Amino acid sequence: xxxxxxxxxxxxxxxxxxxxxxxxxxxxxxxxxxxxxxxxxxxxxxxxxxxxxxxxxxxxxxxxxxxxxxxxxxxxxxxxxxxxxxxxxxxxxxxxxxxxxxxxxxxxxxxxxxxxxxxxxxxxxxxxxxxxxxxxxxxxxxxxxxxxxxxxxxxxxxxxxxxxxxxxxxxxxxxxxxxxxxxxxxxxxxxxxxxxxxxxxxxxxxxxxxxxxxxxxxxxxxxxxxxxxxxxxxxxxxxxxxxxxxxxxxxxxxxxxxxxxxxxxxxxxxxxxxxxxxxxxxxxxxxxxxxxxxxxxxxxxxxxxxxxxxxxxxxxxxxxxxxxxxxxxxxxxxxxxxxxxxxxxxxxxxxxxxxxxxxxxxxxxxxxxxxxxxxxxxxxxxxxxxxxxxxxxxxxxxxxxxxxxxxxxxxxxxxxxxxxxx
Length: 422
Prior knowledge:
The chain has two domains: 2-111, no CATH class; 117-414, Rossmann fold. The chain contains 13 helices and 15 strands. It has helices at residues 2-18, 37-49, 71-80, 89-100, 135-143, 152-156, 186-198, 204-220, 229-240, 249-252, 260-263, 319-324, 401-411, and strands at residues 23-28, 54-58, 64-68, 85-88, 107-111, 117-120, 148-150, 165-168, 224-228, 307-310, 331-333, 342-343, 352-356, 360-368, 371-376. The strands form two sheets. Strands 6, 7, 8, 9, 10, 11, 12, 13, 14 and 15 form a ten-stranded mixed β-sheet that branches. Strands 4-1-3-2-5 form a five-stranded antiparallel β-sheet, sandwiched between helices. A hairpin with a 5-residue loop joins strand 2 (54-58) and strand 3. Helix 2 packs antiparallel against helix 3 and helix 2 runs parallel beside helix 13. It is elongated. The N and C termini lie far apart (64 Å). It comes from Arsenicibacter rosenii. This is Asparagine synthetase B.
């Protein structure tokens, strides 16, 4: 018995000495073993905000997170209902060695600093019930990731440079108030008109163009832009239509330039080109252009229950799109929106398609100057047609792959930025 006890003592000494038996890392799995995929992003963000590093293990168990062992992180996981595993040094080292193998499509990317996040939304200044269902606001709130809301006045005063990441959702940058009175109340319109007057613009469309150009410069200077739904479509329409009246008299008191379509300058846009404007007047339709693959009388709100597929990128060579497409599912339910998806022949060749359905592109990435952007079609990844006034309760969808794509974008600026190699 004595010799057995000696062997046990020696084993314990070895374990404590080299760390083989000591839990030295926390793994937050992002595969089917994860109890709450969306809140896991909030853990990663908080860890960064608290001054610690996170390693994002691309294509390892759904894009898992690896963090140095820390009691506060473990407690936070338990409080938020996020699954985690404790690993010894040798186990963590073995995983990283597996990932580094050139023959496997995996990579480890260090996340170094929590990005300062801004959301561009009229909830800053008016009731804007439609904006309360903004999927990014819903995702950030659920994941407990802090952000600040900005709108036209803050942007025109030069406050964007305080942030690393900016989100645009349903906004209409053409100055046509969404082309849908169900979306925007008379009070919402009045507030925008008041801001335009206060900032010295004769028309809301002139102010929105100035805002769009400022956002484009913000992105080109090395920041990150994420846009969904009509925010992505109308952003480029406004840029292409600089100096051209594309707004009907119902919105601004005078008529549309008869040659507006011919005068569009697609060199000024970020992601889209060769699109045709919908210049029909009134509130009859919800379409802005044929960028929206579901354009027509009802815009994208007649989108059927089909699916789109994420592309598979090389984690070691195409690191950026690999980060932005991390998921536990690669086939995702389509969802509607005023701009549900992007017509394929309107997407510039310079944009990288990361997800598409049979008839349209759903998720694209691009670079402007030294900055980057991603555009994602649709209003709410878990939304139901006809229920846009009610924000989605993510307690019912903690594993939503559609929402995971949004949160991938939130973490992206925290990584060491690497240009695509292919």
